Amino acid sequence: MQFSIKPQGIWYHGSNKVFEILKEGSTITQWKELAEAFSHKPTILAIDDDNSIFHNGKEYGYLYIVDESIEIGIDIYAHPKTTMGKDLEFITKRKLKVKMIADLGLPDVEYQKLSEEKLEKWLHNQTR
């Protein structure tokens, strides 16, 4: 997947916890839907060819934005071991102030069913 970073753009973090300060070493992204998916704490997450995200997360989720100025290379850096596309995941180098922007709740039941079906197919294709 091709993803371009906007250095002054919005940075998101998804979590199943409520807080105001994001810990050093946390993951952030500029792809809102990816942060939303991670808020549900999946053990498996995949991105389809059409850039749709499917996962097996079942936790109650919250969406945050970083609520202060940050700089790539100073405050955050590209995730060195990402299994996704370039520039999708960044790691925080320090604590960051965040603001909750959405109470996402639990993943929709229909979404969970569709994700389970897609994950089964995806896992089957990975083991070939």
Summarize this entry quickly.
The chain is α+β, with helices and mostly antiparallel strands and 128 residues long. The protein has helices at residues 32-38, 109-126, and strands at 12-15, 21-22, 27-28, 45-47, 53-55, 61-66, 76-78, 90-92, 96-105. The chain has two helices and nine strands; from the N terminus they run βββαββββββα.
Number of domains: 1
Taken in chain order, the helices and strands follow as EEEHEEEEEEH
Low-pLDDT ranges: none
Mean pLDDT: 88
**Percent of residues in β-strands:** 25-35%
Oligomer: single chain
The tally of strands reads 9
Helix fraction by DSSP (H/I, runs of at least 4): 10-25%
- Computed over alpha carbons, the radius of gyration is 15 Å
Q: Can you summarize the main beta sheet?
A: 4 strands, antiparallel
Shape: globular
H/I helix tally? 2
Give the strand order, joined by hyphens, for the main sheet: 1-6-9-2
How far the N terminus sits from the C terminus, by CA atoms, comes to 22 Å
